[in-house]
């Protein structure tokens, strides 16, 4: 290659690194470098290190020409290269859809930045809590640790938590990001029982929405194991409340939300685990004291889910992460034998 050709290739590559909004396009690097600068400044003030300029990635700004030829001709090359594509590759890259065809507005971009910043802040708090977990022999330290966990739990809600809907929306925004799912998965085992159950019910209530948002990441599975431990703490009434929302037709839709849940691996796994726990509660003698209306609602719900599974094509039914041993006996108690045999064939 001639020097001119090399310069042209380098110019194209450097243009790709440019951004009009680096804090949005390269959020994690910008956050990392800000923390690094702060740490170095603190160490310099304490005299732990001498002052020096740290390295930072700087990309030269290349002025875009207002007028240029429509085609670049490189001697010895095959074909012709359009300047509009090669001069500004970022434009071509951004044209590729990333899970959604909707173009983000300025407000949406700003909101996403706020969510990412919240997750980063909460993750730092979680790391601090996990670091203190092994050294809590004193009661005062244990109380302080519990207060930190409660503070982190409250941080999952939006700052302007005027209503339950706003609080739930703030939690869903965190779960819309892969790192947010990892945050919740690591936080769940540390939470008190009532707090963990409240998150479980929120996830169950909004399960169809979370499944739709997780199509690209497929990261909800990391929540299954910690949520499975929370399910055992659900009361029969709480279990019904969590599942009933999956049976109701959304406005303007002819499909129950449970249909979408059954087509997702995390969704069907969580649903099966909830049904299994419900069967255990019903089989206990203490559960006989529950109101009969709850038992009728439970029976109707099990029958509806059985019919949804039976009507769904086998290829559409997701493979669960775990299959409870008491699931088929549960259906045997509430539906007829031919349907049970049909379900058994589907679940093999």
UniProtKB/TrEMBL annotation:
Q: Which UniProt keywords apply?
A: Cytoplasm, Nucleus, RNA-binding
As recorded in UniProt, coiled-coil segments are none
| Pfam families, A to Z | PAT1
Q: Which GO terms describe its molecular function?
A: RNA binding
For the keyword Nucleus, the answer is yes
**Cellular component terms, GO, for this chain's entry?**
nucleus; P-body
- Domain (mRNA decay factor PAT1) spans 73-210
UniProt keyword Nucleus present: yes
Major place of residence = cytoplasm
> What are the GO BP annotations of this UniProt entry?
deadenylation-dependent decapping of nuclear-transcribed mRNA; P-body assembly
Subcellular localization = Cytoplasm; Nucleus
UniProt family annotation: Belongs to the PAT1 family.
Its name, as the record gives it, is Protein PAT1 homolog 2
Organism annotation: Mustela putorius furo
- Its gene name is PATL2
